[in-house]
Every structure is written in C-alpha cells, then in structure tokens.
Design goal:
The chain is of the alpha+beta class. The protein is built from 1 helix and 9 strands; from the N terminus they run H-E-E-E-E-E-E-E-E-E.
Length: 181
Amino acid sequence: MALQLIKSSTQNIGVRMRSITKLSLVVAALVLTGTTLQAQTNNASITATATVQTPINVVGAQQLSFGNVFPGVNKTVVAMDLANAGRFDISGQASTQVTLSFTLPATLGSGGNTMPIVSYAGVHAQNSTQTGGIGFPPSVGVSPSLNASGQLWVWIGAQVQPATNQAAGVYTGSIVMTVVY
C-alpha cells in the first residue's frame, strides 16, 4: 500500500507540475506580447467659462428741488424738468437691460414737521437731454436697457402737498434708486 500511495502522489505532482508549467507559459506569452489585462476606458472634457460684465455704477447726479413752497399750495416738479427734477446717472455693460426700483418717501421732514409727497413720475433716456425719453411710474419700477456706451439717465419728479398751516423750514427726504442687471 505504501507503494501505491507514493505512486498516486507522484501522479498528482506530475499533473500539478504540468498545470503550473502551462500557466507559466501563458503568463510569459502575455508579458512578451505586451497584452495587458485592463478594462477599457474612455474620457472627455468640457470647458467651463464665465464672462464678467462691467459693474453697475449709479450716481445721484442732481437733487429733486421743489424750490420755494407756500402753505396750502401744491407744488409739482415734472420729471422732464431738466433743471429741477432729480437725476440719477447709470453706467454699466453696454446694451444690457437693467431693472430699476425705487424707495420713495411718503413725506419730507423738517425737525418734527412733515409735508406729504402725493405723487411721483419718472423718465428714463439713453441720453442726458431726454431725447426719446420714456415716462414710467417710479412706484412700479421699470426695466430699460443701457445705451451702446453703457449709459442711462433717469429723472424723478414729484408733487408735494403742504398744509395750509405748514410750518416754515427746509424739508428733506431721500429717494433711493436700486439698479440690478
């Protein structure tokens, strides 16, 4: 029996040796031929871009001036009054639409006294002389475009309504225009 065990083991060793030899030959053939065992890959790329626009610049160029106001007599400054209407100058990206919104005071104040502003009117134009200007209600806002040079002018007019017993004084209030691309 011992002889059979040896004979049987020897046969298994021979089979294993042939298997190892075959495997070694396959590996050597793959290495020699340069064949790699890798998964196929593929890729692509895209470009990310961003164009930075010219920043918006807003200047309060002229104050809304009612001048002398008398008790009990309403005073109006129309938006087309180049000398007395308030004016904002805007510059930014050429030919780009902007949105204008306003914070409008309901009254002007002097010390503890107030005087109501009963209405507002606005005009926007692509030139400083209002040629081709377009009227709009500032309380609603508007979305005009800057001109080819990136400029826009906006005028604001209003009407004050002093009481018949309005106290004398210099009355003021702030009109704020916000501009957004």
